[in-house]
Queue: 2 jobs
Job 1
Amino acid sequence: MKPVKAIKINKNMKVSELVENMKEAGFGAGKITEASRIMKKMFNDKECKVFLGVAGAMVPAGMKEVIIDLLNDTDIFVTTGANLTHDLIEALGEKHYQGEDMEDSELHKKGLDRIYNVYMKNKVYVTLEKFFELNFSEFQKCSNIRELLWKIGELCPGNGILKTCWKKKIPIFCPALADSGIGLMIWGRIAAGKKINIDAFDDMKEIIDFAWTSKKNGIIYIGGGTPKNFIQQSLQFSKGADYGIQITTDRAEPGGSSGAPLKEGISWGKMKEKAEFVDIFCDATIALPLILAAIR
Amino acid sequence: MKPVKAIKINKNMKVSELVENMKEAGFGAGKITEASRIMKKMFNDKECKVFLGVAGAMVPAGMKEVIIDLLNDTDIFVTTGANLTHDLIEALGEKHYQGEDMEDSELHKKGLDRIYNVYMKNKVYVTLEKFFELNFSEFQKCSNIRELLWKIGELCPGNGILKTCWKKKIPIFCPALADSGIGLMIWGRIAAGKKINIDAFDDMKEIIDFAWTSKKNGIIYIGGGTPKNFIQQSLQFSKGADYGIQITTDRAEPGGSSGAPLKEGISWGKMKEKAEFVDIFCDATIALPLILAAIR
Amino acid sequence: MKPVKAIKINKNMKVSELVENMKEAGFGAGKITEASRIMKKMFNDKECKVFLGVAGAMVPAGMKEVIIDLLNDTDIFVTTGANLTHDLIEALGEKHYQGEDMEDSELHKKGLDRIYNVYMKNKVYVTLEKFFELNFSEFQKCSNIRELLWKIGELCPGNGILKTCWKKKIPIFCPALADSGIGLMIWGRIAAGKKINIDAFDDMKEIIDFAWTSKKNGIIYIGGGTPKNFIQQSLQFSKGADYGIQITTDRAEPGGSSGAPLKEGISWGKMKEKAEFVDIFCDATIALPLILAAIR
Amino acid sequence: MKPVKAIKINKNMKVSELVENMKEAGFGAGKITEASRIMKKMFNDKECKVFLGVAGAMVPAGMKEVIIDLLNDTDIFVTTGANLTHDLIEALGEKHYQGEDMEDSELHKKGLDRIYNVYMKNKVYVTLEKFFELNFSEFQKCSNIRELLWKIGELCPGNGILKTCWKKKIPIFCPALADSGIGLMIWGRIAAGKKINIDAFDDMKEIIDFAWTSKKNGIIYIGGGTPKNFIQQSLQFSKGADYGIQITTDRAEPGGSSGAPLKEGISWGKMKEKAEFVDIFCDATIALPLILAAIR
């Protein structure tokens, strides 16, 4: 047991100083410091493969650059189709917007789609259509989701998560890609009579092989959902994680995977008993920049 | 405006009486009555197709029969691979368990996997292996996820959700099936050199066609995740829902689809402006039996 | 370990049957049954004094009769000034209202005060003023909060919580009574030059004596706040509770008393190590009627 | 509408730079910047009286210095008895502790009281007893809670919140002081036959006068509970607030004051229609240091 030491705010303090200052505080504050420490340790551990799972609408919230920054130290990236669709939308030159609180019926009339307090013009789907129409012959050459996503990253004009993963050859897995705007674009071409043959299970081999062949594994979960679960199951049948950070506001009581604390993974063998891990109960748009800025 | 009328408990009261009694109460109580009313109305509306989306570990929690009951009035069922895997596990004769609170490291030694306060023997995976090994040649004939799930329902020995959907020919969609124990079983066969060709996007046509051709749509979301989002996007590009019930404990503030209130769907055209809908903030294992029992 | 048994909905089932049916289910469902069992046991245990703590705006939500029902088995009642003010408002013939969702600025123009989805006419304060003006000479004879609250219960014309506590001589404690509409009415008289001398600490003796002299203690917390904490501290310095039920949706992570699980009380000696207790994560307007109806 | 601009982490960035960077992001991130902006504006507005309400166990969590820092710009401070008791405990030389996760029954045997992930030795109550025994004759001269709290601040040996408020003559209100360790100490002396006469309603005049006589009002709520409500009701019967910041993780749906968004106050007249305000959904030990450090 160590005494709690109060957080002290100084003039012009750096983020690293603030987070260092939170170290001996209780509740969530001390966990932020612990998350920074674990993140730094897993990034610096040469034997450790880092699995990053990102759910939630992180790109519309302005978290694209933070994720790209994390990708510098990521070996495997798993995310939702929604995040990738929004990333592609920005890579195609479209934008997300902040704005005054508006009634949903009014937004509908104005052609604006709402994501909590962020808005997107519904006509971005036209831009997406054009991109998929133009490049579909290239996409037809792909046979699994990871290949398709790298191909989108290669062909999209602007920078972003997809482009970065393609450039750095970081595998992106997205088991529910059909469940997204990108999925809808594929469906649109199929509905128009075109063919594409993307296997639903093919990517599993690659992610499970990664978990098997690595010496150590580190996990970072931003939200839960499919990204968390897909990484968790690859760890279950190889070896558990050595390091873990989870940032979510979901509750444990209703029993879903998204709200389950990391320690539950110990029973399954998804997390090693002696692993270093921390659960952060916080909106990721607040906690993640803080945790990361402290170690950059 | 109508006066709030206090809920009154009577001796031996029926669930329908309790829920009727909650009608003129505030906060969550009145919403339970409203959910029962909307559920009854969408079930009785002959023009309405009912889309049921179920995330969370509902089967381990003992919600299998409640879901089977709902399937009597469901036209399209979307769920997670986890729920279907746990359903299959029970259909193969294995069980889930209630028990004393135990340390995760102790559970791991005993070969028990924890799902909040429910336990499962890790050796169920052996039972699953046998089933997939035995029947894989049949599964190889399937070309999309919906076909594969019906085939599992047909071939599994016991009753449950999969069997019910197969018998009643209710389409089950599960875009992230790879992300589940069933996915792992498929992967195991592929790793052993067998072939199977399940298309990742093929199911989209069927669900979107349903949403297009129906006169009205009703949605019931138990949790969010992929099941909610997959139904939502099929509504976005056809017509919005006329009726809606969402039961979740996820927060709206972190911006994810799972915690988004149904009214946000109006901006996207996923929900009609004049739709009748209600958001229930409650553990579904409490709210759903109450809502359903009131109308059966 | 016992197998999970699925909840089954029957036609016209009673609440007691539904709750019995939830017994072998997981997550929140099984906890509802456990709460009913513990509630029944503490009510039937002749050696047990029952402490009921109620925070949150239960009266405006239509929970008045449920609380009055619980008072049949309650020895000590602790609540917020807000609940008692709303109870008095109804006892004076005023009402709370359900209604369409309205903008707060519009409500303000119409003289309606909003409590989530319940409304109250702002002019109820005029009715309160009259009652306090009329009866203040009686209130001046009181020297502590418990006496004052019984006197209000005696003098108010209609039925309700205050009237019931006065009739049944159930002590009501409300340490922060100043922080409520009743407090404002007292302040109004003081501001007009009248005198009243209510001691801030005098009630502590009575509640702590109760906890000391009882053979066993049972606690029921609806929400946290001052009601929970005031009971908890009276148990800390006497003996811990033998039975406990807590219904709240507050989180544990931010460290406040309201969200702390009951087991944390064991470290403090507020809860006995061998006590029977359960934490329910649920809106009390849903869970409490269900738990209570199952045993009435 | 303005485009969302992604947060970008730079090497060695200052907290003020990070928060400035969050400005054009969505979800919680942008609200952190907005809270910093509003806090700075209300602190710099010479016509504005700042009301700070602090619930939750902020002192044990290491937030004492952050609160003392806020007190530099605070005109009225309202908090729980628990926070003041923990502040006094530290001012008397005792400590709070971080430590390994331990079972509550083990903690009980070791004489450690748990507050989520912070521990306190139960024997601090002996230290408190001595302080109250020694100084009780001074406390007997006080006639309301604010006077008593300043007197404790004056007489306690060490620094902290109580000492700061006494030195700077910032009124501290704590309507439920009986509901705390300080209350227990007062009760202990009364039980031993000593007299003290602290009025339960006397403080109301002072806080309501403040709200009446100020030109503008600013509110900062850390958690809800009695501190929030006591400030809210003083604003209701004077004029509403012009600026507002609320940091809480409580839910709105169960209808309690603690989880109510600030805009609900508009219907009551507690918040002006044109007020500048923001609700932050976050553990205050994370959000508050970030918000404050950005403007110091």
Job 2
Amino acid sequence: MQMQSSCSLPRPKSPPMARSSIIPSSLSDGLVFTAGAFLALLIFLGLYSFLSPTPIPNRLFSFSPSFSSTSSHIDDTYDPPDETFYDDPTLTYTIDKSISNWDEKRRHWLKLHPSFSGGRERILMVSGSQPYPCRSYHGDHLLLRSFKNKADYCRLHGIELFYNTALLNPSMNFFWAKIPVIRAAMLAHPEADWIWWVDSDAIFTDMEFSLPLDRYRAHNLVLHGWPELVYKKKSWCSLNAGVFLIRNCQWSFDFMDEWASMGPQSPDYEKWGKLQTSTFKDKMFPNSDDQSGLVYLILTGKGGWRDKIYLENEYYFQGYFAEIVSRLEDITERYIEEEQKGPAVLRRRHAEGVFLSYAKERNAELGKQKGADTGPTGWRRPFVTHYTGCQPCSGDRNKVYSADNCTLGMYKALNFADDQVLRIYGFRHASSVSADVQPLPFDYPRSEE
Amino acid sequence: MQMQSSCSLPRPKSPPMARSSIIPSSLSDGLVFTAGAFLALLIFLGLYSFLSPTPIPNRLFSFSPSFSSTSSHIDDTYDPPDETFYDDPTLTYTIDKSISNWDEKRRHWLKLHPSFSGGRERILMVSGSQPYPCRSYHGDHLLLRSFKNKADYCRLHGIELFYNTALLNPSMNFFWAKIPVIRAAMLAHPEADWIWWVDSDAIFTDMEFSLPLDRYRAHNLVLHGWPELVYKKKSWCSLNAGVFLIRNCQWSFDFMDEWASMGPQSPDYEKWGKLQTSTFKDKMFPNSDDQSGLVYLILTGKGGWRDKIYLENEYYFQGYFAEIVSRLEDITERYIEEEQKGPAVLRRRHAEGVFLSYAKERNAELGKQKGADTGPTGWRRPFVTHYTGCQPCSGDRNKVYSADNCTLGMYKALNFADDQVLRIYGFRHASSVSADVQPLPFDYPRSEE
């Protein structure tokens, strides 16, 4: 369920360490002081790494997994009889009725189920698609492959995945449909610290990358976007609402209530359509949409939500496909070169169960390589490649993209990702768009030199 | 990837506790003695349960989960540098080269990775479909829903799922394609005790049922079938090769080598076609197929494999859809009735994470109900409903089935299963074939009386 149009606004040039908070620049001197201190820290760390014989384990410079998926020992076969929020007849899974005291309710449930607490933060990934066949020929097949792609990522990272094919609120369709699903998922998964919504047309193209959750400690909602485009350009494309992390807490329930109040089921739907259209000159269709609604809340500060919203742009938390797809083959070649000359550990065969051990090795190697950045000029694998505007299911793509760009592009990204998984099973695709696969020789790719 | 034809042979009438071993009746007196002892045991247990005030926790009479999915604490972020089979250049993932000493290789790997051992037996589910879009309109959408169905089952039971869309050996297509995939999966998952192959057209219709793995302790391959049909009818339909459990061990590698030697890539392919056709008078097409090949090995005892093959028919390890689909609505109604009059625990809302706790409660309740058997006359949910012969992807179904039987039938089974999952999220389908969903009231279904 995606928007009709895509965001083709050129990305702003941000310095590598630009803060991605969304607090506008007109704040107090406190911010100026903080900026100064931050710059001093940068200089210090730069000098320190030059002078010190020991590399700084610095997660700001390389996105090593700060989150391990080691499963803790859960007990799923016992539910104590003690009352919890589930036993409250006034609590509903539907979006028409607000939830209150969720943090306390969750805490109480976790106290009764101690095996679900502790260890690393738990993420539930949620995605989905429509409950009937796609109109376009490749549509459902691409959805299937994309679902597999998410399932592969989740299996490698020990993350649970809920793929939904039901329209929970018949009036909240298209891009609005995810909100009732996320809400229901939060109630069904009180053990989840985060819900990670990922659109059906967003593909994981770096299987080895883990979310740097520490960065988001002080926030409740993480999206890909640029503050500059929010405040200066006032663009509806300043962020993307198709991929986000939302914390499982009361703030999020309240936020979703406000967000959903802009939706088609709301009496204020038309009013929001007009307000969004008048605020965002580049908005391409008149009806209220979820993305414009989000930008509006951040831009205006209405409701105070923005303080807890993190706009990430230092890696492809989600990446616009048009700036990625033509580079995938080069990225593949570059990784092959690095593996051929790099340490044997990069080529070592291993069980899928210890995948993250090798992800850690690779990320450490990448951290030493010049140009191994994520972004339009770097050669690091993009984390997520999002085919926003392609509409693979309906076929109603934005006409600035050819069918090839979209369809072939999606197959390319899926194969690019699949190769990272198939490798564990001893195979790879014969080419970037081929369905055929070939066995990998021992010590691949050194054996190919 | 399914067979062209379906098996429409009427199932034999087996007594409820018939042994499903496949050893023919012409063996020694030892078997007679064993049968007598078994009967004595049955009588004893029957009397004991009558006289004893405490119910016997008897897994022979009710399929309570003997397998809990409680995850053990694995460490996926460290792979020791010690050599394992992965470092052996002579070991390949492809089917053309045999594996030897696998049990020792696996044991060695597990010793180096102690966190992957212990606890319950680990299962890896493997399924898959073709790498290009389906010909038929509903095809890919049904595959997507079926994949979701498997992903739901696995998530509820803590089982990993690998969904494959690559043809690993270009000559081994259709039903042969699974063998190279299973083999590669065994190597990629040395921690898995079992690989559970499930065809793409097989749907899990009882989310609460867990495999009774204790039954298969002495066997390496489990399929649904009837010894009577193997030995007396000599039918190619005496078992179904679309759903099976295969132990991750040397026996299985050797077995798959022999099984695969009947495939299209083998120089003996034609010979096997003729041999199978002359042996099984009801075989409907002349080429060698995986299912007839299996029956042949059991019937003749060739290679000695049959001693380790278990033919399960006491529950729908896989169930032929044509004897199930028309009963699904009645089964739904019966479960609703039982929940309305049964204990509150059957209706209690809960987290998805403790699903198995409620599965245990339900299975205990079902154990007390008359007629709650699995089978064509019982009203227990069928474990797996297999649309064999429907060919949803190509559309080339067996003409004894109408498009409605197949397509609509699959949607019915998918909805039937989906309702068991959606319930956890507070919803259900509006009807057995409807894509629409409705919210569930508190204390459903008692609130509907």
